[in-house]
Amino acid sequence: MATSEFVQRSPAFRPSSPDWEKSPTSSPSRNSRGMVALWMFIDGVTTLLSAMLVAIYEQHQNSMTGARNFWNGAFMHDQSIGIMLAALCGFTVSLIIMSKKMNLYTPMRLSSFLHEQRLSVQACFTSGLLLTGALFLVNAGSISRFIVLMTIGFVTIGLSLRRFVYRMLIYRDFDRGIGTRNVFIVGTGPEANALRNHMESIHHLGYKFKGFIEFPAACPRFSVASNDVVGTLDTLFQHTRKHFVDEVFFTAPCEQRGVVKSVLEQARVYGVDLRVVPDMYDGLAWNSPIEYIGQFPTIPLHRGHVPEIALVLKRFVDIAISSLLLIAISPFLLAIAVAIKLDSHGPVFYYSERIGKKGRVFRCIKFRTMVRDAEKRRADVMHMNERDGVLFKIANDPRITKLGRFLRKYSLDELPQFINVLHGDMSVVGPRPPIASEVREYKLSHLRRLDVTPGITGLWQVQARQDPSFDSYISLDVAYVENWSVWLDIKIILRTIGVVFAGTGS
Fold it and tell me: Are residues 268 and 340 in the same domain?
């Protein structure tokens, strides 16, 4: 079960008005400028690297002449370095502008692979034509045409390859349920049904259909199964929390345009993206561009704030820390594995199904610290639970082995979870991943802690690990989600080091 099917199957999520907490009002548009700037920078670096490869090739053809010319301030057939750099900068700026005009910096899932590659080649060739024209106008004809064509070719191959690799990585994550966007469709008419089929048939869009929202005044239901209808407009935003919905598509009839404005205001409050079919706009978004979901035209009315650059940096830090740490302590991990086998019968690792971001179920890896039949004996020790609410923890659990007690004290049993971090199921810092039985007891407000990727360590672990209160556990995790920053992660990691050496685990 790789998606939030667990949440859909759990009847224990009961909407309760007193416990429902609105998310803070979000900004009216997604913070995508940072990501666009990042992709522009990467394109510039790709262009520079391609030009350097061409330069290396040119110098290699005649190493002595090339070295002498470079020392004397000339470059490639006695051309000034200034002229060459100016031409390269002009080509790079032109390429970035053309790429932006062709929407190559929009989310790649909104276009097909072949379409993206065609536009990428077109942008490179168009910029190449402008480059050759500029060189002709400044009388730089002595610059080898072969060098110019080779540079354009290398840039084209480099950009196409970069986009291909990135798309394959995104597709791999989509297949595992990572990075997908959960959606509701308002309406049950033919347009809603067609949009649902379109999303499910085109996997690269990265959308996960979570249900229809019935519209009382809409046209009759069109071939929609009753179990696909999850609620009405009155309970729309309660269900968006319950199903971890990122985006709502509005396909209601034209007569109901006034209702869209009301839903739009609520979407801004709850931080949920909203799109409607073009026939519904009635002046709601005159300046908004049409975005195609596959072949389905939509116009975004609201986009929630997403710190994309910070999230990319967080993922980079996760990969760097987990990779270096696993390599550095691999002999130590092997020693622990051998000690576990010698200490008690059973496997070295313990695999537990945990609930991750947006209710996604994954297998969490830990060193085994309990006897082999610990799960079967859980009911026998339930009366010894020392935690409040749905949490379960026993300091002197009789099921824990002698070695397991030592591993837990210094949190060494959690070291294999860095493998989960590499896979993208977990992060170094974040709320602890709960088990299914805990999540079934959550109220809607508690689901806020599942809006982010779970972590090995977090605010609760370093601040209130011995506090048995469930309310403290939830409030600290929610505080982390709502106040997250890269700097907060760094502070938690530094504090975790002290907690581990203090041996406060249990």
Answer: no
